[in-house]
Structure formats: C-alpha cells, structure tokens
C-alpha cells in the first residue's frame, strides 16, 4: 500500500514538474510580426521585429515614422516588452500579451511619463481604453532574422 | 523664430507698420493661400477688429451659474431666480420645478416624450467615473507638478497645483459617496459642493443626440405661452440610467439596473458661485457681459456642436467628394428600444450608430423628432436634405493633421466634406483667421493618439473636416496652429481677425477628464495676456463658452431650430472693453450666433442657402425676452456690447 502511494505521489510530482517546466519554457516568438496597435484615436499598423535569446527579447517596433528599439521578456506564452519612443515629448509604452500559435493579443499602457492609459478623451469617451494590440507572425524570414540575432 | 516674431523684429528695425509688413509677406504667399489683410485696416461694422472664441467643454448654464446674483438692475434666469434653490444651495420654494421622472419606452419605438412617467422620490445615486487617485502613470491628476508641467504647458505658472489635485478616491463605477446624502438627494437638482470639493474631478453625464432629445422631454402637448416648445427637461436621470452613453449595438446586459450605465443622476449636480465655486466665471460675469439665453446648437456632444460652430450646419456621410452615401449599417443610429427593455437603444455609441437620414421618416428615431417639430404651434422645418445621413455624435474628422485620411486608422470617421464653412467666407475677403488647438503640433506627429501626452481634440476642430483646408499644406499651416502660436501672436500684435481657441483635454473643463477650475486657468492666461497689450485689448472681443452642456440639467428655455437642435443652455461670457458692467443679455442665441457676429462685423453673407446663419435676430414680446416669437431665430450678439 505504502509503495503504491509512493508511486502515485511520484507520478503526480513528475507530472506537476513537467507541466511547470513546460509553462516556464518560453514559446518561440523570434521573427517578424505584423501588428495593429490601438491608440486613443485609432489603430495603426506596426511591424515588430523580435529577437529572442531564451526568455530575453530585443528588437524593433517599426512605424511609418521610423524604428524604435524594444526590450522585454517572454515567459511561457506571456510576452512583455517596453518601447521608449523618442521625439519632442518622449514616452514609454509597455506592451503585454499572450502568444497563441502565430498570433498575439494584448494591451498597452504608458509608463513613467504621466497620462498613461493616457488621456482618455472627453471623460473616457474612447472606444478601447486598454489600447489593445494584436500581432500575426509573418512567415518566411525566420532564418534571416535568426542570422541577424547572432 | 516664427513669422510673427520676424515681423516684430523687422518692424522694430524698419519702423514700418504691421499693415505694410502684411502686404510684403502676402506677396510671398504659397499657391492656394489667399492674401490676408491686417485686421486693423479692414472696415468693420463695430470697433471690434479681433474676435477670440474660447470653447470649453460640457457645462450647462445652471450647472455653473445656478445661484448667480447679477448686479442691481439686472435680472438672470437660473435656479435661484426661479426659486428652485436658495442662495446657500438648499432647496427653494419651487424646488419641485426641477423634479425628475422615470418613464416607460418599451413599445419598440423611440419617443422624445416618453409616457408612463413617475416622479423619483429620490433620484438614483450618482456614480463616480473620474480618476480615483493622482498618479504620474495614469490620466490626470498627476502626482507631481513636474509631470503636470511636462504634460500641459498652457496653465498660468501659479496654477499647476490644481493639475495634481482632485482625484475622486472612489473606484469608477461605485456610488459617489463624496456627495452628501447621496442616497437621499430628493427629486431634483442638488449642489455638488462642498461635500465634493469644487476642485474635485466630478462625474460626466451622458450627452448624446437622441439621449438629449429624451432628456428635454419635448411635446407640443406641454406647450405654454411661456414655454412654446413644450420642453420640460425632466428626464435627465432616467435617460442616464436607462441607456447612458450608448451600447454600440450590444444587447442589454443581464441584471441591468440603475447603476449599470455607470452614471446614476450625475446630470442634476450644480455648483454654487455664491459659495466660492467657479470664482473666475463669476468674476468675469460681474465685470463683463453674461448671456443667460445662449445654447448648445446641436443636441448631444462635442463633435456635432463644433461642426455647427464652423459650418452653421451639420455635415453628412459621403464618398469624400460631395456625393451623399449610406454609411455602414452599424454606424446608423437606431434609438428604438431593444425588445424587452425599457429604452435600451438598438444601435448607438462611440463605436456604434451615429448617423441619421433625417429626411426619411422611416429611419429609426427620425419620425418622433420631425413629428414633434411639425406639431408645434409655429412648426419648425427639419432642414434635412434627402438621402443625407447627418452626423449626430462624435466620429473622427476626415483628415489627420498632416492631411492624410483618418479612415486608414479608424472606421468611425466622417468622410472629408466640401460643405462651405466660416473659414471659406473669411478667406474670400482676405480676413485672417486661425484655429488654435492646444497640442496640435504633437498631434500632427501622432495621428492615432498613441503618445500619452497627446490630448489634442481632433473632433473639436471644424476645419479638420474640410477638404479645402486639409488637402492644402499652405491652408493648414495658415489656419491651424498650436496655442503656443496664439500667445506669440498676442505678444507680437499679429493676432488674426478671428481666432478660435481650444484647450487640450486636460484643461477643457470636461468633467471626469478635466475640471472647471482648469478651464478657468486656461481662459485667464489668455484674457490677462490680451489685456496686457492695451492696443490689442481696445478692439478685441473674447467670447468664452462651451461646446455643450455635457448632459447637465438646465432649467432654461430651448428653442427648436431644426432636426439637430438647439440643446440646453450653456454659459457665454463676452469679455471686451465694450461689454463691461456686469450686464446680463437675454437674447436667444447659440454657437451660430458667434458666426452671425463675425458675418455682421466683417460684412459677410450667410454661408449657404440652408445654413442657420440665415435665421433672423429674435423678436420677443414684452415681459418675456427669452422666447423668440419669430422662431427659428438667432441673435447676432451685437446687443451684448455697448458700441
């Protein structure tokens, strides 16, 4: 009986351990992602270039106005990265989200510069105050990006 | 150094006049931009050579001036004069005149005067929807003055403290327990202060088109000699709790109750100028001229009211080249109540229905409004062109700041319009004008509002809807600038003939996202600066008003002019050397009256054959200066001055 319990306990422990390891292993996000980022007045198309070193992320966010570096982490499926935008009134946006296969869905909030979540416009008359963003993986340039990452 | 500064420096060295410099620079103008004449050299009907219009956000007349007492010999129509409240803000002998009712609208069709009314023994408790705490990483109020100054440049230097104060301390969506006796407010208007401080961020009531028609509760059956439009203004809380700011086409949530829209009876709150609230609004009324019969020109909110200010008309959905089209189905208003609900609209919201073809009586919501207008003793024409879906609520203007189309970023966009606006009329006579929108320079680089400092109001700029301005870089540069250019123009005596000034969202006075004291600070900075330049001050008129009443209750008369409005009374202050003395003007007016003033002063004709600036000045009967007998009529505001 004791032996049976010990075996069951061992199986449970192993299962939990395996699932924990699986949860902590970052999913693969390196590559180019076509994204849509919603501000107070609308959604703009942006491109994310993600370079992955284990759980660490670097890369760029490309807008019509230019490229800005990003840095962050990926823990399991949960992605988080900060982008410090330059300009006359520089600001930082923290993007967080969840990766599911070839897509990411998340929200974004300003950091350390006031008015995050930002000015909501007319007492909150805004369509999507969480400033959501979505991204879809662009296939075909993985190897090139992996090379660039090295 | 900008053009204005160059002008000043050149003048200093050359000893020339501003008019001469103006002529020289006009010869160098880029294509597409008409020559602008020095305002001081243009013949005007009055001594006024410069008009500055400052437009704040969302305060009804009674909300601000409920207890205002004018100087001896003057009369004002407000809650105090009507006996609804006493000077101390307590209930007056006629308190029941402000009584509010619930109603029943369950038969599947929108009604502007719903029946089944029951008086509220106590109006539903107001719900808090302002910022809970000060923070440097969330919307204003900011935790530090450093961040406040970084975010907002347009306050007087000594006023930055108030951009760090006033957080509600209450989670949004909770009963606003700052308000004394919040569950026993009685049946009508209540003073917001002192239990909630004047400097606190207050809650924002609904202020949308069909909602405001219902809030005013208008019917020819209620018509009297003193109130021929028959608007009772007695459904403000009911509309707040039954539909609020819309549903974007979604079904009514399960368990829906009076708190579900997140508003409660926010609309019934007023400030008390006798107890120190709105001190500058009171001071300017004491010293200059206040209108107690000025109105928002369109029922509802910001966008349509600024459009009416610029076009003296509403604009409509099109192909962007002047051909009227039908908008996507989910953008067409449908205020008919959903099956099984009491007044929960089918399709309405900031990402939902916002257009109506008001020439077609079969369209949702249209017939009840048009039938009401036509049933009046003096019937009013809806003034809707066939096949035109008019914009009734807030959608993005057609253009970004750089002249590209906003439709690339948002489906909730009004296509570019070629309807004639006041800028066209001024330009044709070489009369200079500029829209000074605070935050414009940043917004031009940030069209989606991604930058958290970007609180520019795109829907407030009437010229941003207009193809002729926005597709011409020279026109954009000449006629749309940031407020930093306004301050420079005042200092360098290069102010245009007409200036329209809009604060950013931090200072515009809109409840929940701004405060009235912040708007007072914004206005004070401009008034003080103009007065510091005596040559400019002597021929300048500053009109200070709001885009709309914000959904706050008001007891004043409302005159129907067409399908679109008018809506509730809002404050209008006229600040100039020719409007001193604390006079109260009673002539019926709305935003288009300012356009009429500009047109009369500079000898311009009405914008189009159908625009509201064609309406005559009001005629009234002795004993009732508030109600035009020749409706529809709008004053041109010349009688707010003593020229």
What would you note in describing this structure?
Chain A has one domain (31-149): Lipocalin. Chain A starts with a helix and ends with a helix. Chain A has two helices and eight strands; from the N terminus they run H-E-E-E-E-E-E-E-E-H. In chain A, strand 2 (43-53) and strand 3 (56-63) form a beta hairpin. Chain A has helices spanning 2-24, 142-149, and strands at 31-38, 43-53, 56-63, 66-75, 78-85, 91-100, 103-111, 132-138. An eight-stranded antiparallel β-barrel of chain A has the order 1-2-3-4-5-6-7-8. Chain A is an alpha+beta fold and 150 residues long. Chain B has 643 residues and is an alpha/beta fold. Chain B has two domains: 1-30, no CATH class; 42-132 and 168-640, 3-Layer(aba) Sandwich (Alkaline Phosphatase, subunit A). In chain B, 22% of the residues lie in helices and 10% in strands. Chain B has an eight-stranded mixed sheet with strand order 13-12-14-1-15-16-6-17, with helices on both faces. In chain B, strand 8 and strand 9 form a beta hairpin. In chain B, helix 5 (209-216) runs antiparallel to helix 6 (236-242) and helix 8 packs parallel to helix 17 (591-601). Chain B is globular. Mean pLDDT of chain B is 93; it is low at 1-27. Chain A binds chain B through residues 37-44, 65, 85, 87-89, 91, 93, 109-127, 131, and chain B through 57-58, 129-130, 135-140, 142, 147-148, 150-151, 204, 245, 301-302, 350-351, 394, 396, 406, 409-410, 412, 441-442, 445-455, 457-458, 504-506, 510-513.
């Amino acid at each position: 009986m004791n032996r049976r319990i010990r075996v069951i306990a061992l199986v449970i422990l192993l299962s939990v351990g395996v699932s924990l390891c699986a949860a902590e292993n970052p999913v693969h996000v390196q590559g180019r992602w076509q994204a849509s980022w919603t501000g107070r007045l609308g959604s703009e198309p942006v491109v994310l270039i993600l370079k992955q070193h284990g759980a660490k992320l670097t890369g760029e966010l490309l807008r019509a106005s230019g490229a800005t570096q990003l840095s962050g982490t990926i823990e399991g499926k949960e992605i988080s990265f900060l982008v410090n935008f330059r300009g006359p009134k520089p600001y930082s946006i923290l993007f967080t989200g969840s990766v599911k296969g070839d897509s990411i869905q998340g929200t974004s909030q300003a950091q350390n510069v006031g008015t995050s979540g930002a000015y909501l416009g007319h007492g909150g008359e805004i369509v999507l105050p969480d400033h959501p963003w979505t991204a879809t993986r662009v296939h075909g340039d993985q190897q090139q990006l992996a090379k660039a990452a090295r | 150094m900008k053009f204005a500064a160059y002008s000043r420096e050149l003048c200093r060295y050359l000893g020339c006049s501003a008019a001469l410099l103006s002529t020289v620079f006009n010869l160098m103008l880029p294509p597409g931009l008409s020559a602008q004449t020095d305002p001081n050299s243009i013949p005007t009907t009055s001594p006024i050579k410069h008009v500055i219009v400052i437009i704040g956000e969302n305060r009804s007349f009674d909300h601000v001036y409920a207890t205002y007492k004018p100087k001896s010999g003057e009369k004002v129509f407000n809650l105090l004069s009507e006996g609804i409240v006493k000077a101390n803000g307590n209930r007056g002998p006629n308190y029941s005149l402000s009584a509010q009712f619930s109603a029943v609208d369950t038969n599947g069709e929108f009604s502007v005067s719903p029946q089944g009314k029951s008086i509220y023994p106590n109006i539903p408790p107001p719900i808090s929807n302002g910022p809970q705490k000060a923070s440097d990483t969330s919307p204003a109020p900011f935790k530090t003055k450093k961040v406040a100054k970084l975010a907002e440049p347009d306050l007087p230097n000594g006023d930055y403290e108030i951009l760090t104060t006033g957080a509600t301390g209450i989670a949004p969506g909770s009963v606003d327990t700052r308000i004394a006796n919040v569950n026993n407010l009685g049946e009508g208007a209540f003073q917001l202060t002192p239990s909630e401080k004047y400097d606190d961020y207050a809650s924002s009531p609904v202020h949308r088109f069909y909602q405001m028609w219902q809030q005013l509760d208008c019917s020819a059956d209620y018509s009297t000699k003193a109130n021929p439009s028959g608007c009772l203004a007695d459904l403000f809380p009911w509309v707040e709790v039954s539909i609020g700011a819309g549903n974007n086409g979604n079904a009514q949530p399960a368990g829906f109750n009076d708190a579900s829209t997140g508003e409660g009876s926010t609309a019934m709150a007023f400030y008390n100028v006798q107890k120190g609230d709105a001190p500058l609004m009171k001071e300017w009324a004491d010293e200059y001229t206040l209108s107690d019969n000025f109105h928002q020109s369109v029922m509802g909110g910001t966008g349509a009211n600024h459009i009416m200010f610029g076009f003296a008309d509403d604009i409509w959905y099109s192909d962007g080249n002047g051909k009227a089209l039908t908008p996507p189905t989910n953008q067409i208003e449908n205020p008919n109540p959903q099956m099984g609900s009491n007044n929960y609209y089918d399709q309405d919201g900031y990402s939902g229905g916002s257009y109506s073809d008001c020439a077609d009586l079969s369209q949702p919501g249209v017939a009840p409004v048009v039938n009401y207008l036509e049933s009046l003793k003096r019937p009013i024409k809806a003034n809707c062109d066939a096949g035109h879906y008019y914009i009734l609520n807030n959608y993005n203007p057609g253009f970004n700041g750089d002249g590209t189309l906003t439709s690339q970023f948002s489906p909730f966009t009004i296509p570019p319009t070629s309807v004639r606006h006041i800028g066209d009329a001024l330009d044709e006579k070489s009369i200079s004008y500029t829209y000074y929108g605070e935050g414009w320079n940043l917004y031009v680089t940030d069209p989606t509002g991604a930058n958290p400092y970007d609180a520019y109001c795109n829907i407030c700029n009437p010229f941003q809807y207009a193809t002729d301005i926005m597709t011409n870089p020279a026109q954009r540069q000449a006629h749309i600038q940031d407020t930093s250019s306004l301050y420079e123009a005042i200092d360098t005596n290069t102010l245009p003939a007409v200036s329209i000034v809009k604060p950013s969202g931090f200072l515009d006075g809109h409840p929940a996202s701004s405060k009235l004291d912040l708007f007072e600070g914004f206005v004070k900075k401009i008034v003080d600066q103009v007065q510091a330049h005596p040559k400019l001050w002597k021929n300048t008129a500053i009109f200070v008003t709001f885009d709309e009443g914000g959904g706050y209750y008001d007891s004043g008369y409302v005159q129907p002019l067409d399908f679109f409005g008018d809506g509730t009374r809002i404050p209008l202050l006229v600040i100039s050397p020719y409007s001193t003395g604390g006079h109260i003007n009673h002539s019926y007016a709305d935003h288009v009256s300012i356009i009429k003033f500009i047109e009369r002063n500079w000898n311009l004709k009405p914008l189009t054959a159908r625009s509201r600036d064609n309406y005559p000045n009001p005629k009234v009967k002795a004993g009732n200066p508030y109600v035009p007998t020749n409706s529809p009529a709008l004053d041109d505001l010349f009688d707010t001055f003593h020229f």
